[in-house]
């Protein structure tokens, strides 16, 4: 094991992994702690939720990704708390001392002060969320085929997606393809293509981070795919049978949540002030105020760059991870600290479905087939390793040619939890 | 929807599917009921449990498999009971009338009158069992890496597989490969290759259905792979921390059960006598005694053919399904009933691991590389559809070349169950 400064990184997402990698040649012992054993490629999670891909296509064991980095150790444990005075992280697997701490714990769904909505409207952050959503979608069609009552059948065949950011748009578009293309031939009593898919958005347009013309295109593409887009519509209640809007109720067989995120509780651990979204307000070098040895990165950090807030997306998390890793390496080498973190926006991509996507990269604006091809190639490129690239490409080719989905499994939560000890 | 005699098939495994297909041109309305939405290729389930394959590689939606058969309807529902007098099947989705009933509900694990052992020692029948076992195996290695206590680490790195039939042998061999080949480079504090893998068998040899020399070969191949084979060893207790044998205790991080099966409760539904393994004792034409319109097939049926009992394996279930489907079709067409069911044994295959397998087919006996190649090609052949064949072949090629496993995910049971209604 390498000896040197002890760097603890909490979280094996895009930010945490980049931070670990940036320390590969530093005189440091890196300990990466995550409560799950895998890194998940969240941008494609909606494809697991809509039965196009398998969980293993978009996830990798964190320790395999750091296999060759001999100064990195990975443990799977739950962080219980941080003692910044003693410089210790308390976990379900013991207490660990650090010289530097990087908090990269990401974000989770926010239900606008209504946590009681969560069981009825899962969001999409983890592999388990994706298989949960997949189960709900497919189970609704199964129940609709089995049920006798017509009103109940209509309810079961109605799907509401709350929030029209990239995740909501991609879920709605993919769900429309499942209903219109993949399922119809398989059912006898219902017509899956008659399913009602409603995308509910409180703001005035879909994909608000994109330029206006691309938002317009995305809305029209969704509507062409058979998605009802409701703009300026505010959700006031969510329950197991549907949602209530200010304008009225929608009885639904499944409600999916893509409306808001809140940072994990790392701001408290770092002793930093939290913004409205729970993110730790950090210094320009991403350190916690008054704690130059504690850093917060990715969706957990609130930081501005060139006058605007840094968005909660994968490239931003990677850039922060790399920056902090290099900053720690510089300090350990006695080199001068790098200038403040500066975010470089690479662009925005979102897909609506078959041959329909929007791309806004460095002033380049694309829609339709070209954008879809760009989106597909970019995502294959960003996957890790040959196996997953081939697996995803194979599944997409299968999907494209046959209109089928290869992972249409309803799996139940396992009956007994793993034994303690 | 075709009209005609109402045939209800309960269970979409190998037997139930074959029965449905054999009725494709009969003047019948076929209703296939299963509590899961997918047909599972059980012979490869151990590869999901050992992280080589994804669930979707070995499972297909039942309704997709019967997509083109217009006289077949599939519903996902739980069968609550059968009323043979009224000829009705009661399910979680209403009551259904039948003219013919085919019970193909399979078998589940038997714990020798110790159902309390089940939570500590999962068996391998469903997709959920496989991901549960995968979680236990991978979690044991993760905990061993995180834990400080040496005795606890030794316990966590000990795996006990109970039962040395094909499933136990294949699990033990695959687990040895995970420990010796896939994991070592990924850990820093433990040596996964030092894991102790114990295959416990009460009988005098492994793979008892194979000829003696093949059993011997399999035992030696397992030992070469680093599996401890304990023959004539009887399990007297199983708990979350390991197993107790007559000879002493083995503290273990995971215990896997491959020792016995018991038929599902269909014997009671059919009004037939059950044998010791819970299987319905049926007539030579697989009908329930005194109920010529009720049939029991596959692992749920106890039937003899040419003086010997028909084994509980996939080819037998398929043959029974085809036989019963054709028998019902003959009756509907007013043709004479076929002669009694006659089982044709096609052979036995089992694999131990990389380039090691045993094959006993029509007097042909193979071991080693040739057997392994035969086993691999046969299993690719028996998979359904091009997508899954390519996916499995790709994963095997990846596994063969890199010694890695592509689906090393620890996934938790989803937090909230799906909403009711």
Structure in words:
The structure is a homodimer of 421-residue chains. Chain A has helices at residues 14-22, 45-49, 62-65, 127-146, 150-156, 166-182, 212-224, 266-270, 314-332, 368-382, 386-402, and strands at residues 5-10, 28-34, 38-40, 59-61, 72-76, 79-83, 88-91, 94-97, 100-103, 107-109, 158-162, 196-200, 227-230, 235-239, 242-245, 248-251, 254-257, 261-263, 280-281, 287-288, 291-296, 301-302, 304-305, 308-309, 348-353, 356-361, 364-367. Helices cover 31% and strands 26% of the residues of chain A. Chain A has 421 residues and is an alpha/beta fold. In chain A, strand 7 and strand 8 (94-97) form a beta hairpin. In chain A, helix 1 runs parallel beside helix 9 (314-332) and helix 4 (127-146) runs antiparallel to helix 5 (150-156). At the A-B interface, strand 5, helix 4 and helix 11 of A face strand 5, helix 4 and helix 11 of B.
